[in-house]
Amino acid sequence: MGLKELKKEARIKRKKRIRKKNFGTVERPRLSVFRSAKHIYVQAIDDKSGNTIACASSLEESVNEKCRANEEDKISKKVLMSITVGKTVGERLLEKGIKKAVFDRNGYMYHGRVKAVSEGAREAGLDF
Predict the structure, then answer these.
(1) 97-106 pLDDT, tens per residue?
(2) Which residues contact 30 (CB under 8 A, 6 or more apart)?
(3) Has this prediction a pTM greater than 0.85?
(4) Helices (H), the chain
(5) Dihedral in degrees, nearest 10, Cα atoms 65, 29, 31, 59
(6) Vertex 12, ends 40 and 82: CA angle to 5°?
(7) Band of the pLDDT at 54, cuts 50, 70, 90?
């Protein structure tokens, strides 16, 4: 097994350990983050019914427009995109009357882009 497979297995082990404790409901959904090399995706999930309540990703044109409008030199493009995705999903949940959520980092370190998503959601008014 190569290094890439070992890292992926370790992340999946961490993910399972985290998911034992985190559970989303309609009133307090689970914000699940997935990050790839280029993009970041967030879903607000109700685990009781298995439905996605709201979602946002860096692939959406509306998110890209917001990101271009708020470009700053000090922050990297991916981190800025993550903050914007977090704000977008936070705003979408607030529109539906949901003010609290459970943050699921999905086995990733709470650092960089994953941390930026949570900060963006908090800026939008969401509580963790």
Answers:
(1) 999 999 999 9
(2) 22, 23, 24, 44, 45, 47, 101, 102, 103, 104
(3) yes
(4) 3-19, 61-69, 77-95, 113-124
(5) -30
(6) 15
(7) very high
103 is in which domain, residue-wise? Answer: 3-124
**Angle at 52 (CA atoms; ends 59, 32), nearest 5 degrees:** 65
Query: What CA dihedral angle connects 15, 20, 26 and 30, to 10 degrees?
Result: -20
Count of structural domains within the chain: 1
Determine the residue type at 41. Answer: Y
Per DSSP bridges, beta strands 40-46 and 30-35 are: antiparallel
**Confidence bin at 73 (pLDDT 50/70/90):** low
Helix (H/G/I), strand (E/B), else coil: 51: strand
CATH number, domain containing residue 32: 3.30.420.100
Find out whether 44 and 53 touch, Cβ atoms under 8 Å.
yes
Of 5, 66, 59, 18, the closest CA to residue 35 belongs to 59
In angstroms, rounded to a whole number, what is the distance separating the alpha carbons of residues 87 and 93? 10
